[in-house]
Amino acid sequence: MRLAGQDPVVVVNTPFSVLKHRRLPAFSSRVQRLESFPAAWLYTPLYFPERLPVAGAFAGALNRHLLLRELNALLGPVRGRRNVLFDMPVQCSLLNRLQATQQAYLAIDDHTVTLEGDVIPGELELERRLLAGVDHVVCVSETLAGRLLMRMRQSVPIAVLGNGYDEYLFDPDRDWPEPEELAAIPRPRILVAGHLSGRLDWEGIRAASCLLPEWQWVFLGGLSPDLDGEVKAWLQPGSGMPWHVLAPVALQRVPAFMRHCQAGGVPYRLNAFTMASDPLKGVEYLAMGLPVLATRVPSLRRFEGHIAWVGEGSGEDYVRVLATMRGEGMRLAQGRREVVKEESWSAKAWRLRSLMGC
Question: Rounded to two decimals, what is the model's pTM?
Fold first, then answer.
């Protein structure tokens, strides 16, 4: 969307399944023009099932034909450059089909493994096909860059561009009233924002909570259906843990939760997924000036000196860090904000344009 300040941009959403919904919504109802970015559209293509016997091949061709036709309706005839950014391995079927001048793979995670670090059957081969057809690869971490380099069948320029934050939204100088969901939760509070899944270091969090129960853990996000049953029991009211599970909220409300917590947490297990990731919430916490506790996810090392590290599963480490944070308050907030000054989405957009020679 930030790129729309310079060029027209279409962000393609997850396709609308005709089979699942049993209807054909009009093109106009599947396009949203963004007020803040007048040259940007959110667009939802149609999807006809491609796994049906006999009709599958026809459905695939129809899906691609409709996608290209509707993209051209938004962007107009191809004049000059048209850059296509793929972000999932399965999109390899669209290589060389969208009248692109350049094609790039924008890898925001290692999509060949689950959040828990387990291999996803078939994804690695799809990703290799995508890597073989693009002109550029941009990914969020050095670890992921190394993996993608090993998967390439030919030499393709690869660059690391970490996650950014919305500098217009995550503004600590705005007046952020305390969310009503936090009102009954005592302080100090540590916020863990995002999807609650097996990637979190539940053993370390639990050990820390038993050793230092005055710290209240605020979990802001939906629960993964695959979350371990024992962890789900710990998360239930009445479990005796100082844990508070809040329902997901709109992104526009998240800074208020950060503003009224005393620390932010990125307590990840160090598995195949998280080691290659670049946790978005870590950058957002720092942008809000919040003290950050994190396990040693490699991509966060660029903020060395502004993050308090803990060992995975080490309740003692958590206790040591939290004890320090309680007395610190927001004393070093300005330094944290400064360290992410160049991590905004606007800065990332210009860097992406440069990487692709635009």
Answer: 0.92
